TrEMBL record:
Source organism: Brevibacillus centrosporus
Protein name (record): Sporulation-control protein
Chain segments carrying region Disordered: 296-320
Stored InterPro entries: Spore_0_M
PANTHER family xref list: SPORULATION-CONTROL PROTEIN SPO0M
Length: 320
């Protein structure tokens, strides 16, 4: 009787330990492993065993945690006293549209063993959300060009995850900063970029927006140098001759014409990190983002002076 009472209070109760086969997975991949349950001092009835993928983000200096997805594992079973051990395999699909792991965005699996009439044993395991291979290749290509990521690179904006770079060496163009949001769709990868250029005698900063469509052939293994060369030539041409930047309707991306809300099942593709931005945006929209401001509706293709905020689609430049 004493052992049962103590187990209800968590002393000598069953223990749960989720064990991942790998520490990191790419967007859309399946996380695999086992949930290991060690029996305690007494037999215990389990009503539910589940894991929740949690996102922890630092937004404007505040830590925010948000549940991303619940993964049921097993329900209504019994854990025998020690030395009994159960290992339950699992396969959890990592959702599309999540932001990649960065110093300011982290993920973990919170595992819970729901014990009837007792304290619930839990476990927490951090997991790295890795970029899709095409995105990883572009990030590596930019690094080869000596474009270094800024300290706050990878932050969330209302439109997806934004990566910020500065040139560590002279690249033959007046580039001060490059901001990139990735848009992926079947058969293509687009970079929505903002180029911050130092122009004129006073070297005033002016922003220009552009879309770069990366040829699929350059995203294949063995094409690393060609990919870097393509990106350098395209960025250099735009930076040195802003008048040649082709028009692209940023409002179309904002309004979802290009599949911005693909995580809801459109299958058209979407912004990398758009799902995560939606999670946080829904919770913090009024309090931390807009205030009394409204998003501008008109397209804005560039030529904005003095704006050092986040990626600006149509005049809105607030990060989450």
């Amino acid at each position: 009787m004493l052992k049962k009472l103590m187990a209800k209070l968590g002393v000598g109760a069953a223990k749960v330990d989720l064990q991942l086969d790998r520490s990191g997975y790419r967007l859309g991949e399946t996380m695999t492993g086992v949930v290991r349950i060690e029996g305690g001092n007494v037999e215990q009835s389990i009503s539910d065993l589940s894991a929740v993928l949690m996102m922890k983000a630092y937004v404007k200096g505040q830590e925010v945690r948000k549940a991303v997805q619940l993964y049921p594992v097993r329900s209504n079973f019994t854990v025998q006293p020690k030395p009994a051990v159960q290992e339950i395999p699992f396969a959890f699909e990592l959702p599309e549209g999540l932001a990649m792991s960065t110093p300011s965005i982290q993920y973990f699996l919170h595992t819970k063993l729901d014990v009837e009439m007792a304290l619930d044993p839990t476990d927490m395991d951090f997991i790295q959300v890795l970029p899709p291979e095409p995105v990883e290749r572009v990030l590596q290509a930019l690094e080869r060009l000596d474009l270094r990521q800024k300290q706050d690179s990878g932050k969330l904006t209302p439109y997806g995850q934004e990566f910020s770079f500065f040139p560590a060496t002279q690249l033959g163009m007046p580039l001060k900063e490059l901001e990139v949001i990735f848009f992926s769709a079947p058969g293509e990868l687009k970079l929505l970029v903002e180029l911050d250029l130092a122009t004129g005698f006073l070297r005033r900063e002016v922003e220009y927006k552009a879309e770069i469509v990366v040829p699929q052939g350059l995203l294949q293994p063995g094409q690393e140098e060609e990919l870097s060369r393509f990106l350098l030539e395209t960025i250099r041409e735009y930076a040195n001759n802003p008048s040649v930047i082709p028009y692209v309707s940023m409002a179309a991306y904002r309004q979802g014409q290009y599949g911005h809300h693909s995580h809801r099942g459109s299958g058209m593709g979407g912004m990398i990190g758009g799902m995560a931005a939606g999670f946080l945006g829904g919770m913090l929209l009024n309090e931390m983002m807009f205030g009394d401001e409204e998003m501008a509706s008109e397209d804005d293709m560039g030529g904005d002076e003095g704006d050092d905020g986040g990626f600006d689609f149509g005049g809105f430049d607030e990060e989450l």
